[in-house]
Design brief:
disordered C terminus; single chain; four-stranded antiparallel β-sheet
Length: about 350
């Protein structure tokens, strides 16, 4: 029988994370911003992704997909073949093809061109390419396009619905764990229906009744010890395979609505929430908001680039606001700032990319 969830005590939290997080050595950060003033097509950011060539892709809601190749920005929209101006998730396969999920279906970018890749008319929110090379696409907005989960094996599509074992039809997140299981997180018009795990044969469902802190799940990842993390609108659930643990604002999170999570290369954890970002080293919490230099507080995506810079995609629901914040360690010799500044057209207001108030 599934053991009930319980609140995670501070000592238990440290014990759970001490094997892969590094305490102490607090970093000092400088913040930089990228918005439409600096080359983005839209400030509402849904996804951030760095491909194998070091190019940064940005999925926006309303401005298509943006690509920064280290010297200039390139924008892709319906005029280039993108199925929608809302680009929600971007991933790369082993052959170097870039897959772009949109609110109107799936595209693939290869050889410098975008082409249609299936699921036309489906409102896609998240994709993942598993170890077998299969692409999984989660569909939401079920009232518009039916919702559900789709799998592409390179030749044909398979679909999964509540009749197949899904707990709901509106899929916010798709994730593959280290064992090859596929996990999905659900939305269901904001109510949520929990998460489900597919082992290739059947679905196993977890929800509030058997341990999950909240049924509406936006983010997932697996830590180096095999614990599974679920970011919900009610806090974080950590599943160690036997017991469900909970982390909330009572423990140090700046907000319980957690949309994105990341462990960086310095063994620190980042949590993107409705009201800012929280950083955790296994012992101490520190949070950042607009007051510290972020462009906005609602963080929808987090990415670490190959230079160790942490990118945050924001989505404040207010037209015109939003954009990308980049946190750089002050002692980091990376040249990202210079790369971005050099890519801007002559005469643009480059000073807007300057460091905001430093986080202390």
């Amino acid at each position: 029988m599934q053991q009930p969830a319980r609140e995670l005590q501070p000592s238990e939290l440290r014990k759970l994370l001490q094997k892969f997080l590094e305490e102490g050595d607090e970093d000092s950060w400088q913040w930089e911003s990228i918005t439409t003033a600096n080359g983005l097509s839209n400030n509402w950011i849904y996804d951030l992704f760095e491909d194998s060539s070091g190019r940064v892709w940005v999925g926006t809601w309303g401005g298509g997909a943006c690509l920064f190749d280290g010297s200039k920005w390139q924008i892709f929209g319906p005029q280039n073949g993108l199925l929608s101006r809302a680009a929600t998730c971007i991933r790369e396969d082993k052959e170097g093809n870039i897959w772009i999920a949109t609110d109107g279906g799936l595209n693939v970018y290869a050889n410098g061109k975008i082409r249609e890749a299936g699921l036309v008319g489906k409102s896609l929110l998240n994709i993942v390419i598993d170890r077998k090379g299969h692409l999984w696409a989660g569909c939401w907005r079920s009232g518009i396009s039916g919702g559900g989960l789709f799998e592409f094996n390179g030749k044909s599509w398979s679909s999964y619905s509540t009749e197949s074992g899904l707990p709901g039809l509106e899929i916010l997140k798709v994730f593959e764990d280290s064992k090859g299981n596929i996990w999905i997180g659900t939305y269901e018009h904001g109510r949520g229906a929990g998460v489900a795990c597919y082992d290739g044969q059947k679905w196993r469902v977890f929800n509030e009744s058997n341990g999950l802190i909240n049924n509406c799940v936006y983010s997932m990842f697996e830590d180096p010890e095999g614990n599974l993390w679920f970011g919900t609108v009610g806090g974080i659930s950590v599943y160690d395979g036997k017991i469900w643990h909970r982390i909330t604002s009572m423990d140090g999170l700046i907000d319980d609505r957690v949309y994105a999570m990341l462990i960086d290369s310095m063994h620190k954890m980042w949590f993107g929430t409705e009201n800012g970002v929280s950083l955790f080293d296994g012992k101490k919490w520190k949070s950042f908001t607009k007051k510290d230099g972020m462009v906005e507080d609602l963080v929808r995506a987090i990415m670490e680039d190959r230079n160790g810079n942490i990118w945050f995609g924001t989505y404040p629901y207010t037209p015109g606001l939003g954009g990308i914040s980049i946190a750089k360690r002050k002692d980091d010799p990376g040249k990202l700032r210079d790369r971005i500044l050099n890519s801007l057209p002559p005469g643009w207001a480059k000073k807007s990319l300057g460091p905001s108030k430093n986080a202390e």
